[in-house]
Every structure is written in C-alpha cells, then in structure tokens.
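If you are new to this repository, start here. Below is one unmodified record pulled from the training split, so you can see the exact layout before writing a loader.
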Amino acid sequence: MMVRGLVLWLACATMLSSAEDLDALFRRAQGDRAAVVPLILAGSEALARLPPDDSAALAERLAPFCRAAACSPERYPAMERLGLVTHRIVARETPTSVSRRYGVGAGLITRLNPGPFTVGRELKVLDAREPLTLVISRSRFRLFVWRGRILLAVMPVSLGRPGRETPLGTTTVRLRVRNPEWRDPDTGRIFAPKDPGNVLGGYWLGFDPLKSRAFAGIGIHGFTAERPEAWLGTASSHGCVRLTQPDVALVFDLAMPGVRVVVRD
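And here is the target side for that same chain:
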C-alpha cells in the first residue's frame, strides 16, 4: 500500500509540475512568438495523459495558438517541429502541384500564403505526408485535427440527434466535393449546388461507409439553414458533422481522401 501511495503521489506531483510549466508557457506565448511552438508541443503531449475534463479545458486554451501557427499565414520560430515547412516555388509549379506534393488541398497553399504565386517565393506549407487524423468527440461536440501527436486545430461542431447519432468508430474520408448537391434526408428532395435550399454550405467530406455501412451517408459539411449559435454544440443533425463555414472551409483544405477519422464519446 505504501508503494502504491508513493506512485500515486509521484504521478500527481508530476502532473502538477507539468501544469505549472504549461501555465508558464501560456504566459510567455502571449507576448513571445518563440514560445508558441514549444507550448503547442508540450500541450499536445499533456492532452494524452490528463483526465477528460482537464484535457478538454487545455485543448480550448491551445486552440487559438494552434490555429495561428498551423492554419494562418503567420510564421513562428521552429514551426517545422509542427510539420510546417518552407517550399520555394520553381518554374511551372502551381498551388495544385505543390499541394499534391505535401498531401493537402490547394486551398491551404493559398490560405497560408496570400498574394502572388511567383517563382522564387518561399511558401509556408503543412507537410501532411505524416498523416493527419480527424478526431470527433461526441460528448464535447468538438473536432480535433492532429498531425501525428501534434494538435493543429480544435473546432466546435453539431452532431447527430437522438435516434440518428453520429456513429462511433474509425473510418476515412472517401469523398471530397466542392459545391455538392444535397438530398434532404426527410423529404428525399434533391437540391442542386448553390440552390438556396442546399444547406451544406458548399462543402462535403463523405466518410467511407465501411462494410458494416455504419458510416453510410455520414460526412462533414457546413450548415446554412440557421445561424451557428442555434446549432453549434448540439445534437441536431441527421448524423453528420456540421461545422461553421470558416471551419468547414479549413477542414476541406486539410483533409484529403484517405485521412483517418475517429469518432469517440
């Protein structure tokens, strides 16, 4: 019993020390750009070992730093440790050819590098050849974007309503469609792309249904039928993952076919 108690005490002491270190990094990162990448790395590591409530709170604190470092044109010291590399444009390259090389959407190239695409320019690029994973938490109504063990983004979502719950399990992105048509699951009516009645917001990331058909018809999309505050953080969809328009545009830029998707409680 004494040994067990000592182990528990040491574990608690380690967690307390880590929390104090993270708090110090958060304070530094507010005014020191050089602290942002170390904060994201340390925070990502801490997420795996914290209790659920503490982990959720930490992810929310990390979210704006992750978004700025990984999903904006801002460049930070040591950003290559997050998988953000530089690429110098050579003749005959296009945003599409560069995006294919690194495993992301062409929209992410222009998102991270606004302005003219000219030979010799040095781009900021996310290297997704180390695969990305989308983790969806049903209990937290959050979507997490991971590159390996590094957190890149956290987004609020709406998920399946009672009786049409978003399925638990692991699948992959199978379809990636810009301006898709939409079939209303209640009426069967089909709405053309850009029809005012098409509520998908112009984006569709369809999941592999698997042999079990667990994820048939399930995917990630925007939602334009109501203002986001009416549905974010609620169980109100037909099983799909709804995102705000800015967030679904970002995930569409990040998630290529084959990206792993994990839905958990």
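Two things worth knowing about this chain: The longest strand covers residues 169-178. Residues 84-126 form a domain with the Membrane-bound Lytic Murein Transglycosylase D; Chain A fold (CATH 3.10.350.10).
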